[in-house]
Amino acid sequence: AQSVTQPDIHITVSEGASLELRCNYSYGATPYLFWYVQSPGQGLQLLLKYFSGDTLVQGIKGFEAEFKRSQSSFNLRKPSVHWSDAAEYFCAVGAYQTGANNLFFGTGTRLTVIP
Amino acid sequence: NAGVTQTPKFQVLKTGQSMTLQCAQDMNHNSMYWYRQDPGMGLRLIYYSASEGTTDKGEVPNGYNVSRLNKREFSLRLESAAPSQTSVYFCASSVTGTGAFQETQYFGPGTRLLVL
Q1: A15 Cβ neighbours under 8 A, 6+ residues apart
Q2: Contact criterion met (CB < 8 Å) for B99 and A32
Q3: How does strand B74-78 pair with strand B106-107?
Q4: Using CA atoms, how far apart are residues A100 and B32, in angstroms rounded to an integer?
Q5: Which residue of B has its CA nearest to A96?
Q6: What is the tens place of the pLDDT at every residue in A49-101?
Q7: For residue A90, which residues of chain B lie inside 8 Å, CB to CB?
Q8: CA A44, CA B4: separation in Å to the nearest integer?
């Protein structure tokens, strides 16, 4: 069965510092991986996604993620965090169920940015 | 384009009351989804509709019913609300949904439901 683990519930970083959010997945086939961001009171917005090819994926807002099959990981990174990046971040794996592709989400990591 | 819209934004119900959460998308997407978000649980799929006229259960369907009214609209109904259904509900849509693993799902802003 598919599952996603985000081991860090809450991370605090200073503005301008680098960021890495961890994500580990479990899936029997080739994984289809996503990172979504949820700002307070808002819906989820796609940051980036990985399906195949280059294991380093670039997304919006200066984020990138690296797929490492040997470690079953898809960690999200940003070289320099901005105060506006404070939000909750969800990693998800796409899996096929009857009739449709569905997303299975991790429990999320809340990012706090200190000025 | 408004994208995915949801009504209402916030609702308070008493145990046993019923209500319908509305969702509409204007992107001509075939597939639509209902999720619930609970603290520490991430998002969990309640029901989905791969295409107009079809609906299927997700991970946590008990206590809910859905209707795919037309291609644009997908409603979620709570027939007899329970405190355990207090949650934030998100609707999402994607282009085709069937076998297209690379598809992005687009989310609405959510409905915050409190059941007393």
Answers
A1: A81, A82, A83, A113, A114, A115
A2: no
A3: unpaired
A4: 10
A5: B99
A6: 998 888 899 999 999 999 999 999 999 999 999 999 999 999 998 876 554 56
A7: 42-43
A8: 11
